[in-house]
Write a structure and sequence with these properties.
The protein has 425 residues and is α/β, with parallel strands linked by helices. It is built from 17 helices and 16 strands. Helix 1 crosses helix 17 and helix 3 runs parallel beside helix 6.
């Protein structure tokens, strides 16, 4: 390539869990934001993802499909088995079959210049790395969750020895994929250190973290008004209570029992002063909805569009991040944290590590004792009476955001990095 010549790449992105841009009110996440940036630079982008939509538990088309987003941006849907639960043998089988299907279909496509593959899933990452090694294509593995350690951490202590043996196949897959990757990326240096340790490789110049943020959806007043009407139809009514919001997946990554019991205690110690809104979908949604029905301080809502969710955020004072206090979250600042902060919401959490450091160094929230409903309830009740402290927290959030890079800066830096790797091959 001549000096100063602009590189044009054919980039494959493989990630199984994000909404795709052609879906109604799709919310761009890490792969979606990166794909859009690469497309704007003139690169050809192919995003491979399952036909089965993870959060909605539905098949998009029921078969292998091509969806044209633009002239140089295509979605490739992979026919999928599907599953009803986030955890179970059917999901593992689904992941295995998708990786096999991708490997077969990939051989019939023009060779890409770069592959970016999300971790998880192990199956797809191994398939991508093997394809890259066979075809001399650089493969960057982007670590998004600490699989399979995450599975081991959420098991009861008595099951961990057996769990480690049952997960041995996935630890071997992690070693193959992470050791064979051209580069390892992720949201934090701690995630990359985890991957390097698991794969027994030393950090290279291309192994770097890239933290993405959150960009609120811009909309006309008519669309905002329509979103508010839909929320009212779902039973959401704004009132004078201090509102705390959680939005996310109702799964085993969060301590919902702590929230449920904290809500009951708030009915006793702060009746009529506070409300916790829980929005989302997942395996535990129905359980949480059923258990909260008799609790005035709790309201459970389904998964909302981004515009609907932003109206909930606008009526909220604090963002609740009830992550389990495990390595997967101690080593990360999840997108949810940046989302709350970008919406002006100080954070309540019980997790140690990176999130705790962010809160303590910047004064952008408070921590309660993990698995302690009384601690959470007393904290919320206290803040509902302390308007001065709320004002201080919100000023600190504003100051923190002024010192942080924008979401687009993180996306651009990641795209620059991929271009640099491809150019050096």
């Amino acid at each position: 390539m001549e000096q100063g010549e602009q590189l044009t790449m054919n980039v494959w992105i493989i990630t199984p869990f994000e909404p795709i841009p052609t879906e109604n009110e799709a919310r761009p996440m890490r792969a979606g934001m990166l794909a859009a940036d690469l497309e704007e630079r003139g690169h050809d982008v192919v995003w491979w993802t399952p036909d089965f939509e993870h959060y909605g538990k539905r098949h998009r088309t029921g078969d292998d499909s091509r969806i044209k987003v633009s002239e140089n941006y295509e979605i490739r849907l992979l026919k999928s088995l599907g599953y009803s639960s986030h955890i179970g043998l059917r999901r593992l089988l689904n992941n295995h079959l998708i990786a096999r299907r991708w490997a077969r279909l990939a051989t019939g496509e023009p060779r890409p210049d770069m592959i970016l593959c999300a971790w998880p899933t192990p199956d797809l990452a191994v398939a991508a790395v093997r394809y890259g090694q066979k075809n001399a294509v650089p493969v960057v593995v982007d670590v998004r969750d600490l699989w399979p350690d995450l599975w081991l951490e959420i098991m009861p202590a008595a099951m961990k020895p057996l769990g480690r043996r049952l997960l041995s196949r996935y630890y071997r897959m992690a070693s193959v994929a992470l050791a064979g990757a051209t580069a390892i990326t992720g949201p934090t240096s701690e995630y990359i250190d985890w991957a390097l340790n698991l794969s027994k490789r030393t950090r290279g110049d291309a192994d770097r973290p890239f933290e993405f943020g959150f960009e609120p959806q811009q909309a006309e007043e008519k669309a905002i008004a329509a979103a508010r009407i839909r929320l009212k139809e779902m039973g959401y009514v704004e009132d004078d209570r201090m509102q705390v919001v959680f939005a996310g997946t109702f799964g085993r990554s969060f301590e919902f029992d702590t929230i449920l019991e904290a809500g009951r205690r708030l009915d006793e110690i702060a009746a009529g002063r506070t409300r916790i809104i829980l929005c989302g979908s997942g395996d535990k949604w129905q359980h949480v909805a059923d258990e909260s029905k008799a609790t005035d301080s709790l309201q459970v809502m389904p998964r909302l569009s981004l515009l609907e969710l932003q109206q909930i955020y606008a009526g909220s004072t604090l963002g609740l991040a009830p992550y389990r206090n495990i390595e997967n979250f101690q080593k990360n600042v999840p997108n949810k944290i940046n989302e709350y902060l970008r919406m002006g919401l100080p954070i309540l959490t019980g997790v140690d590590g990176r999130i705790a450091t962010l809160i303590e160094q910047n004064g952008v929230g408070h921590r309660y004792l993990e698995n302690d409903p009384d601690s959470l309830a007393k904290l919320i009740a206290s803040l509902s009476k302390d308007t001065n402290e709320i004002e201080v927290l919100k000023r600190n959030v504003d100051a923190h955001l002024q010192n942080e890079d924008s979401t687009s800066a993180g996306t651009r830096a990641f795209a620059d990095h991929l271009e640099g790797i491809a150019a050096s091959r």
